[in-house]
Amino acid sequence: MMSELQSVTRWIYIRHTNPRGEVSITSHIVWDAEIFFDALTAQTERTNEEARKAGQPAGYRFAVITREAYLEHLSRKRTS
Fold it and tell me: pLDDT by residue (tens digit) across 12-67?
């Protein structure tokens, strides 16, 4: 049985894409996936709005990917 001080975490893998199509992939340990996605969505919307105001392309986006896709990305990165 888990005590009240313990929390359940999970890994989440994110593919970030900028307006030029450049990709970066990150991993995160989160306690509450909903809060994490809400914050990431708000951050992406702010970044796109700031880009629009500056007359720049506003195509920043993110997508959740699988652990397998994350590990594949790491292996390609190490061999390049």
Answer: 999 999 999 999 999 999 999 999 999 999 999 999 999 999 999 999 999 999 99
Q: Do 6 and 31 contact (CB within 8 A), yes or no?
A: no
Q: What is the DSSP code string of 7-58?
A: ---EEEEEEEE-TT--EEEEEEEES-HHHHHHHHHHHHHHHHHHHHHTT---
The ranges assigned to domains in the chain are 10-79
Give the integer Cα–Cα distance in Å for 40 and 12.
12
Q: What letter represents residue 33's amino acid?
A: A
pTM, rounded to two decimals? 0.81
Pairing of strands 10-17, 61-65: antiparallel
Q: Could you tell me which of 40, 41, 13, 39 has the C-alpha nearest to residue 27?
A: 13
